[in-house]
Amino acid sequence: MKKIIVTVLFAAVFSFTFTSCGSTPKTEDTLPSAIEDKVNEVEDKVEEATNVDNSAALEKTEAARNAAIEAGADKIAQEQFNAADALYDALKAQADSGLDISVPLGDVEKRYQALTAYSKALENKKKIEENDLIPYDENSYNEGCTALSEFENLNNSTNLLGTLMLDKANMANGKFINVLNKAYKQLAKEARVNAFKAKKDADAVKAGVAAKAEYTKAAEEFKSGDQNYAMQNAESAYTHYLKSTEQFERITEKVAEKRAAAQKAIDEAKAKVEAAANYATKADQEKPLEGENIDGIEAEDAVLLEADSYAAPETQEAEIPEEIEDFEVEDFKGNDSSLEGLVKDAVDSINETVTSTSEAK
User: Fold this and answer.
1) At residue 67, does pLDDT exceed 60?
2) What does the radius of gyration of the chain's CA atoms come to, in whole angstroms?
């Protein structure tokens, strides 16, 4: 744009110089040196414009195309993808001509980016519907569906711009992400409460001692949930809390079963001891033993079991706070992709260019 403006201005000044004086234009050999220098400068700029290296713009467009394929756009939106490919192939054929094709390549790049966002929007919409998450932010869901329809209707538009496609696709995907963020934030908070209760139940049966390895694993899962929540990745935090709850509950049940089995064995042993004691009492009454060092009977001061020392069970409990710091979910607002908005952006860009040019002078 700047080159065109400079060229037009120069042509106008050049024309005015020779028409205003009312004389016959001078030949090239008699041109004033200042004008001759300007002509040479313009010729150099024209030569530069026809010897442009488009490799960087091609690489960006190719990367956007690969991302769209990875998102499944070549299958999900096959018609739009093929249309973008047709434009891309035509531009690649001109890449070695030396012409500057960075602007049309940028448009194709945005088309591929739009198809990537569109594919992700459909995936997020499906996740919302399959998991009954619409009630968590119904307004954003409806706005996302509207933007999605508007994007799909762009196929019928003429003079379609990649910028408009990208704005609509980003709007749809952003609104669906709003729903997911708010839903999983609430679900994660509820899941954390359940996970903390399961941990307290495990602590009550001294699971940190009775099943140390499994208990430690469940506690680490809980902490991973807290770390993800702190990084505002609520969906991942929700998954970690669910796993932690399941693990703590399984440990508690396992330890409880072991304790019940152990208690049963103790009760049975006590019954046998009582029965043996009764039998011994009866035998001692009927035929008492006499003397010392009787075979099969230990001395009164004999040590039958080594003294054992157990770590306090409380010291084996994982330190996890009952509450966690909350965060706010920011709504996706999107860009003004209307015709008026695009015109306003273009005018703002021109004003900035004029301002910067004036300041430079």
Assistant:
1) yes
2) 40
